[in-house]
Design a protein that fits this description.
alpha/beta, 400 residues, globular, 2 domains, Aspartate Aminotransferase, domain 1, seven-stranded mixed beta sheet, Aspartate Aminotransferase, domain 2
């Protein structure tokens, strides 16, 4: 009977909405209704895209050659610029043919998993993790296997933990440094140890490097292929311009990897989206090849905000905030606030705590459940200095 036919596929129907976008959307709706909500939810720089990048895009709009289809894998000039950036920042020399330009880093993440996973293949997923990773793995037919590292480990998993989670079905290790949501950065020695372990067991590595240029305290995010060059034949690097250049809305990312993987992913993209907007690609060329002064100024501003938010959050009894060395997030452990009564409400999970904070302090934060176990909050400090301080002071008042 026709009425018995399932309307939505199980595969798509099982996808959860992005928790970070959901919380940010709720905050924006409250703001639109006149509520003075301060949102720490979105991982989005508050700065405008640097002027020279915008000017390159403006010129590109007027050039008829950008009004047509271009190669699905990306403009040759942009692929060359990405290859140069990969050598400069990841220590990996690749020809442009091993670069695939995507509609944002998120598409690159999905395509990387779709390219290497078969149904039932397991992916070791260090947690806390970005909310999209497990959904992208499942969409590709894979099985995410969480490996959790708490605040006592600085949110960094160990080789011993990874080995304990490995099975005969393990095919891929996801490696993210600096991390979203924690801002944690693996040291060169830790990266080397994990890379050697992955190489020893013949695993693929998908390494998300989108925050690699946002590090602090003299720390450098060492690429896993730089630490262990032998891994390059089984590693896909994912990156983009969104975070470093305040270009979240331009939707420009990329994959770098072995030729067979990039060719296969490009075939997928040729049917999925064809080429990325030529205007965004021309802007990307200007971002990567142009002056880096604005990007450095933004990094310094994030560093200032990082120190401020960690200092202020750690004044609240019951909150433990490790100091992140990268990205633009803090990930406080809030277990000390749970099970206690605040203005008549007794939250027992970080999800309930986030609801309490939004309702009573008009501050939006993403609960730990979006990234793994309960007991944590993610706050982005990629918002204005004044809003950041006001938001944390509201939390100090609520939990005083």
């Amino acid at each position: 009977m026709a009425h018995d036919i399932k309307r939505i596929s199980t595969r798509i129907g099982s996808i959860a909405e992005s928790a970070t976008l959901k919380v940010d959307g709720k905050a924006k709706a409250l703001q639109a209704a006149g509520r003075p909500v301060i949102s720490f939810a979105a991982g989005e720089p508050d700065f405008p895209t640097p002027a020279h990048i915008v000017e390159a895009a403006s010129a590109a709009v007027l050039d008829p050659k950008n009004h047509r289809y271009t190669p699905a894998a990306g403009l040759p000039e942009l692929r060359e610029a990405i290859a140069a950036k990969t050598l400069r920042d990841s220590g990996l020399a690749v020809p442009p043919s091993r670069v695939l330009v995507t509609n944002g880093g998120k598409q690159a993440v999905y395509q990387a998993f779709a390219t290497v996973l078969d149904p039932g293949d397991e992916v070791l997923l260090p947690a806390p993790y970005w909310t999209t990773y497990p959904e992208a793995i499942r969409l590709a037919g894979g099985v995410p296997v969480e490996v959790f590292a708490g605040s006592d480990q600085g949110y960094l998993v160990t080789v011993e933990q990874l080995e304990a989670a490995r099975t005969e079905k393990t095919k891929v290790l996801l490696f993210v440094s600096p991390s979203n949501p924690t801002g944690a950065v693996y040291s060169e020695a830790e990266t080397l140890a994990i890379g050697q372990w992955a190489e020893e067991h013949g695993l693929w590595v998908i390494s998300d490097e989108i925050y690699q240029n946002l590090t602090y305290d003299g720390v450098r995010a060492v690429s896993i292929v730089e630490a262990v060059p032998a891994l390059a034949d089984r590693t896909i690097l994912v990156n983009g311009v969104a975070k470093t250049y305040a270009m979240t809305g331009w939707r420009l990312g990329w994959m770098v990897g072995p030729q067979d993987a990039i060719t296969a992913a490009a075939n997928l993209q040729s049917h999925l989206t064809s080429n990325v907007s030529n205007i965004s690609q021309r802007a990307g060329i200007a971002a990567l090849n142009g002056p880096q002064d604005d990007a450095e100024a933004m990094r310094l501003a994030f560093d200032r905000r990082r120190k401020l938010i960690v200092s202020e959050l750690n004044k609240i009894p019951g909150i433990l905030t490790p100091t992140p060395q990268g990205a633009f997030y803090v990930y406080p452990d809030v277990t000390g606030l749970l099970g206690r009564t605040w203005n008549g409400v007794t939250p027992t999970t970080s999800l309930e705590l986030a609801d309490l904070i939004l309702d009573q302090a008009e501050v939006a934060a993403v609960p730990g459940e979006a990234f793994g176990p309960s007991g944590f909050l993610r706050l982005s400090y990629a918002l204005g200095d004044d809003a950041l301080l006001e938001g944390v002071q509201r939390l100090q008042k609520l939990f005083s």
